[in-house]
Amino acid sequence: MSEESMKVLEMLSAGKISVEEAQNLLEALDRGDLVASPAEPRPPQPPAAEHLKQDQKHQLEEELSGWSEKRRRKEEKRRLKAEIRRAKAEQRRAERQRHRHQRHMHRHPGRSHDIIDQALSLRIHGIDRHFVDQMRDLGFDDLTPDELLSAKIHDVDPEFVDQMRAMGFDDLGLDEIVSLKVHDLSADFIQSIRDAGFDDLTLDEMLAMKIHDIDAEFIQQMRDAGLGDLNSDQLFALKIHDLNPDFFQEMWDLGLLQKEKSPEEPVMEA
Asked: Do residues 88 and 135 both lie within one domain?
């Protein structure tokens, strides 16, 4: 587009001329009848509108639409969103491909010494058909050699998995089961915490109690110390900061803390 045509469009955008006048000016420029310049602000009288060609009208409409800032920003935002969606999709594809590659390398190592190393690890830790069948019977039928080794090393067996499922945790992955074994979270411990009044805790909360050594005995000690019924967050705070019954007894004796008042018993008339 020539500089003169751009000036005509600028005048139209500024509201100095009408659409019909802009069309006539552009047509005059095409014919060579007009040379627009800043020194000559007055355009010549436009020819009759009926002489405009249809293709020139379309061209003008296209040029005018390009001046819409709102449309440009909207289009830019749309392109940006599309680019973000493509980037996320590509990231997900790359992650899936990486995961498939890792699983393939576990099953099909490319060098002979890798195969020998894996075979030695499986042999040393007692991975055999019986153990693999046990894991598959539990629903873990697509484990890699490393996952089987982890289960074996941490003594994951059908009895433990069945116990956790009987406690209501029946949708655990192998990584979660291994974590329970690592921290020695047993069905007996879970039942003792539930018997102490905490029967709505999640598995993660149960695991946190085990890690922080909060057991039924500790809960009862805090109750006997005069703290009443505590929630799990309060128990965590007591344990983390090493607040034990002896400390509270000392504070009671010094008068620095006051025990919770129990409900008053009714007065018996003589």
From this structure: no
